[in-house]
Design a protein that fits this description.
The chain has 18 helices and 11 strands.
């Protein structure tokens, strides 16, 4: 009996000791004893997993998230892994709605709201006056990285656009199996087959000779529509390329595949309005593109441009939030005007010169920067008011400016009173596409705010007229 009790006590003691030892070891693992912690962090460093272990790895997670956010901004909303992500209102990373930011017409489809409650919350936020759209200035200072056709999430769409506009004689030279979109890993081979077929007919992708550099919301869509009706002008693949403001780190080979296939006597054309306000763009263009590069610059009343820019960005913001439920968004010109004022005026009621919308309309400052790299005769300046009244004179100037064969005739054009602009006979689309659908009313700020803006822009307008040699009616307001 005594032996049995002794064994029982011994077993209990062993169990208790085991439990106590487990608790102590667990505590050391949680707190990180010097020996264990150093060994663990050394292992991280040896594996190349970046950084020291600090507070459960939170510092490294935050660093990775910050780097991802920077990459996303530099890449125009696309992460390196091909996912479609944007920066949320408070800086968080959120899934992006299906919208092509390279397309000013914004004719993309949008995802449906996932939950009714979320939709109601978004609606409540949107109708608040303090929920103005967030605008991220262009940034192309990201590091260069290895770019390949297979790794770029945009390439399948680029190739699809190339093939959708492919001439019949080129299509006949491509084997049937290469006309179908297949796995991403075969993109390089398919692109080469398509390029070789075009080359057989004397067409290649070249860097552009003519670029429409802006100004945003000043008729760049109309300019692109009209000039590419000329048989010697070949538009880029996609409405806007955004190479020198978003994608410069991808390299010139990426830029080249964004151009249309052109014959020897044709000119490659692209338009990206944000180039005008991108500080590095003129220097990089001078370094990378043909020395005879020419530019088209469209301008309009700077205050009207700012209002149009605000509406465009606001609609994109609302459409991303509401998807197909736009009908539930209720706003008035006065409401939009107040939101506009919150953007363009500071807390003291003065014009906020640092606001992106305000700064873009400061034409003289940006144009002087371009003139530091290119002579004045490289720029064809177009006034939107004149273009809307009658596009024919501008297009004749464009022919002479680029060195094209005469093509445009006055009989090709007519004025559409419903659209308040020039349209064209004999084209698949008679009129230039609208870049802002118009689901929100135009903002109507107070007369006092408009007066402040016109006074703010008056010195810039006067200097811009001197720089361009043009007389604009709106510059005298």
């Amino acid at each position: 009996m005594t032996k049995f009790c002794s064994k029982k006590v011994l077993i209990i003691c062993l169990c208790f000791t085991t439990i106590l030892a487990s608790l102590l070891i667990g505590k050391n693992l949680y707190q990180g004893t010097p020996t264990f912690q150093n060994a663990f962090t050394n292992k991280l460093s040896d594996d190349g997993d970046a950084g020291e272990m600090h507070q459960g790895g939170r510092r490294q997670i935050q660093d990775n998230e910050n780097n991802l956010r920077l990459d996303i901004i530099r890449h125009g909303g696309f992460a390196n892994d091909g996912t479609n992500i944007v920066q949320g209102e408070t800086g968080e990373l959120v899934p992006r709605q299906e919208i092509d930011e390279n397309d000013d017409s914004s004719e993309a489809s949008f995802q449906k709201a996932t939950k009714n409650k979320e939709m109601e919350d978004d609606l409540a936020k949107i109708t608040k006056q303090d929920e103005a759209p967030r605008i991220i200035p262009p940034n192309n200072n990201g590091p260069f990285q290895k770019w390949t056709l297979e790794s770029d999430p945009r390439v399948p769409r680029i190739l699809a656009k190339v093939m959708s506009s492919m001439p019949k004689e080129v299509r006949q030279d491509i084997p049937q199996e290469y006309l179908q979109m297949g796995p991403r890993k075969y993109l390089g081979t398919r692109f080469k087959v398509v390029s070789d077929a075009y080359k057989k007919h004397g067409m290649t992708q070249r860097l552009p000779e003519v670029i429409s550099i802006g100004v945003k919301k000043s008729g760049t869509n109309a300019v692109g529509f009209f000039v590419t009706q000329h048989p010697q002008i070949v538009h880029s693949v996609g409405n806007e390329v955004h190479f020198f403001d978003r994608n410069y780190q991808k390299g010139l080979e990426y830029y080249r595949i964004r151009m249309g296939f052109a014959k020897e006597d044709q000119f490659c054309f692209e338009k990206t309005p944000k180039y005008f306000v991108t500080p590095n763009a003129p220097k990089q263009i001078l370094s990378d593109l043909p020395k005879n590069i020419k530019f088209v610059l469209s301008v309009r009343d700077p205050v009207k441009r700012a209002l149009s820019d605000f509406r465009h960005e606001r609609e994109l913001y609302v459409r991303r939030k509401m998807g197909r439920n736009l009908g539930r968004v209720k706003s008035s010109p006065e409401d939009e005007g107040k939101i506009f004022e919150q953007q363009v005026l500071d807390e003291h009621g003065n014009v906020n010169a640092s606001n992106v919308i305000v700064d873009t309309s400061y034409y003289a400052k940006h144009f002087k920067h371009w003139l530091e790299y290119f002579p004045r005769d490289r720029f064809l300046v177009i006034n939107l008011d004149s273009l809307e009244r009658d596009a024919f004179p501008m297009l004749k100037k464009f022919e002479q400016f680029v060195g094209l064969d005469p093509y445009f005739k006055e009989s090709m054009f007519y004025y559409d009173s419903a659209r308040h602009g020039t349209c064209m006979h004999g084209t698949s689309r008679s009129c230039p596409p609208k870049s802002t659908p118009g689901v929100l009313p135009k903002a109507e700020p107070s007369d006092a705010t408009l007066k402040k803006l016109y006074e703010f822009y008056r010195p810039s307008n006067k200097e811009f007229m001197q720089l361009t040699g043009h007389d604009f009616a709106w510059a005298r307001l």
